[in-house]
Write a structure and sequence with these properties.
Blueprint: H1 13-48, H2 71-91, H3 95-98, H4 108-124, H5 129-133, H6 137-168
Length: 171
């Protein structure tokens, strides 16, 4: 089974650069965190594959091409999740998952981005996500990491909704 390339405008510095600046301006520290995630995604995709860094001005792709999926890809994906979890523990963001907190509602932004981009990618390429996500050990590890991350986002959002509900009902 071949794996289609999905690196188009969503992997161009000319698109993600302004988007990152806008996120940082609008959401301050949280926007900077989202922007780091977006831009590090470009870097890691350039390591394991190639990206059209200046699309639409240039279609020239840059990258090391170590492989998707590959050991490098798996280490980057799972390592990125581990770094995010460690950072979340040390800066106290884990409280958004364990305590009722309105700030958790902000996690709807990355949840929406990850889910919508995944569905758009699958739809554009006529892919059956489940069959690909668990077709190889490397993809299973990567998919499990994404499921864990999305679950954490969902828990944070539910905690935010819980706080909002309590405030509306005077609890």
């Amino acid at each position: 089974m071949g794996y289609p390339m999905h690196h188009t405008y969503t992997h161009s510095l000319l698109v993600l650069g302004p988007l990152s600046l806008g996120l940082a301006y609008r959401f301050h520290q949280l926007g900077v965190a989202f922007s780091i995630g977006l831009l590090s995604h470009l870097l890691t995709d350039a390591i394991v594959g190639s990206i059209p860094l200046l699309l639409p001005i240039s279609t020239t792709e840059v990258g090391l091409g170590l492989g998707i999926p590959s050991l490098s890809d798996t280490v980057l994906e799972v390592g990125g999740l581990a770094v995010a979890l460690i950072y979340m523990f040390f800066n106290g963001d884990w409280k958004q998952l364990s305590h009722s907190n309105r700030e958790g509602l902000k996690l709807s932004v990355p949840l929406f981005v990850v889910v919508s981009l995944t569905l758009l990618f699958a739809g554009d390429n006529n892919l059956h996500l489940i069959s690909i996500a668990f077709s190889r050990k490397a993809l299973t590890a990567i998919s499990a990491g994404h499921i864990i991350l999305l679950g954490m986002f969902a828990i944070g959002i539910l905690q935010g909704l819980r706080t909002t509900h309590r405030k509306r009902h005077g609890q």
